[in-house]
């Protein structure tokens, strides 16, 4: 029984990876590929959001870490001439460090107050970027260097000037993030994360130092948001502080909730891809529908499918068994 | 040899005195009961010993070292673990998962080893699972191992809570009302379990309880607290006949 269950899971995983790798080959239209890139970025953010949910925090500030990663990498490249490839790591580390700083101070706070703090923090970050001249002010940063070509011995030089090639950079980040989140979620670490919102006092009395685990969780999620932010900066070639509004953080939350919290990696992937695809389809029909769509989706999902789309198969089984 | 020495512990909640000058010495391997009317300060005392509350004044020595001011998890690591009033479980996790969580301290493994799923990590996970299953078997809970922790009968939940405290391998257990809300047979089983914890495993137990029959039957010594002050201590028989204790519980006849 267990064996077949394990192999079928493996097959699903391989199919998933193949589909993700072949998407730009099947749909070669650059605009389509651009959309898939947005899907991937959304997935990384949603995974981070779900990871933070494990410790009982509804983060309303994920987009701030996207911004920190983006600005760090962009400025490193423009002012110091650092390669965007190293900038990816730099953006992640910057986000992670900031997450560590605010995590150590604020993750002691529980529940709704913590959500408000993340929300306020995200606004402060956005205002700092849009006010200080060093960060380009309201106009943001333009002409950020693109990913420079890589020369692989024996393979020749690979150019990264098209959405097609950039998609594979993002896919690498997405895979890394997904594997990391999966491993974390399905391990002793994940177990400890989940125990905290259930009964933090009990966890403490069993020898868990909650702050340590909350910080590990928060920093990991924000690190990947930062890497994704650095990627978007170099891919689009520009940064604009207005695109990091709280509205975006709420969209991350809706995408993650639609995906489902039963698995951080799969929920984030499903929510990110599906929601961005529907969104871009709606944009073609009538842009006004997008907000109505997000608003109604969150109501419908919270009410009928609180555990997200991942819980749909189980729910269906239950309904079928009853009839 | 005393394992725990509580010295002159006092605590004020915004000017309201909850505990004043409490001195209690616990000998290694004994079962000590703390009783007292509601609001006497028993749970406050537990919260102070286990590090959840910092006392206004006083010292607590655990195996000769001061533990006042240490975090709860650090105190737990040193071998002093408490249980909670009510069931004190992780409600959304299964019974088995609850016990596995309780083994957290047991050979904790590093961040990268966990993420990379190294052999030592996998071996430890298997070991912890086996140990947990064994404990469930001794509690006769194997049949409900996958049931949600809050879906099993209340008596079993409390038993599971104590088993979790035991699973930490602590030398000393603080049990906050272990038989509250239990029916007589369940309370009887719990009393036997507590005796077994002492006799079979050689642990020291301090318990707070309202069930007098259980306290008098299980404890070697009893301390009585009223209005935050220790009013009596001694063997159960002495406490039963102590006029101060009778007065505290029943009051005196008006003349």
Please outline the helices and strands.
The complex is a heterodimer of chains A (323) and B (255).
Chain A: H1 2-26, H2 30-54, H3 62-80, H4 84-106, H5 112-131, E1 150-152, E2 156-158, H6 163-185, H7 188-198, H8 200-205, H9 210-236, H10 246-259, H11 264-285, H12 288-304, H13 312-322
Antiparallel strand pairs in A: 1-2
Chain B: E1 2-13, E2 16-27, E3 31-35, H1 42-49, E4 57-62, E5 65-66, H2 72-77, E6 80-82, H3 95-102, H4 111-116, H5 119-138, H6 154-167, E7 172-176, H7 184-199, E8 204-208, H8 212-218, E9 221-226, E10 229-234, H9 236-241, H10 243-250
Helix pairs in contact in B: 3-5, 3-6
Notable features of this structure?
heterodimer; A: 323 residues; mainly alpha; two-stranded antiparallel ribbon; 13 helices; B: 255 residues; alpha/beta; four-stranded antiparallel beta sheet; 10 helices; 10 strands; 39% helix; 24% strand; globular
Q: How would you briefly describe this protein structure?
A:
The complex is a heterodimer of chains A (323) and B (255). Chain A is mainly α and 323 residues long. Chain A has helices spanning 2-26, 30-54, 62-80, 84-106, 112-131, 163-185, 188-198, 200-205, 210-236, 246-259, 264-285, 288-304, 312-322; strands spanning 150-152, 156-158.
Tell me about this structure:
The complex is a heterodimer of chains A (323) and B (255). By secondary structure, chain A is an all-alpha fold. Chain A has a domain at 32-246. Chain A contains 13 helices and 2 strands; from the N terminus they run αααααββαααααααα. Chain A has helices at residues 2-26, 30-54, 62-80, 84-106, 112-131, 163-185, 188-198, 200-205, 210-236, 246-259, 264-285, 288-304, 312-322, and strands spanning 150-152, 156-158. In chain A, a hairpin with a 3-residue loop joins strand 1 and strand 2. In chain A, helix 2 runs parallel beside helix 6 (163-185) and helix 6 runs antiparallel to helix 11. Chain A is globular, with a radius of gyration of 20 Å. Chain B is of the alpha/beta class and 255 residues long. Chain B has a single domain (2-86, 154-250), classed as P-loop containing nucleotide triphosphate hydrolases (Rossmann fold). A 6-stranded mixed sheet of chain B has the order 6-7-8-3-9-10, sandwiched between helices. In chain B, strands 2-1-4-5 form a 4-stranded antiparallel sheet, covered by helices on one side. The longest helix of chain B is centred in the middle third of the chain and has 20 residues, at 119-138. The termini of chain B are far apart. Chains A and B meet through helix 6, helix 7 and helix 8 of A and helix 2, helix 3 and helix 4 of B.
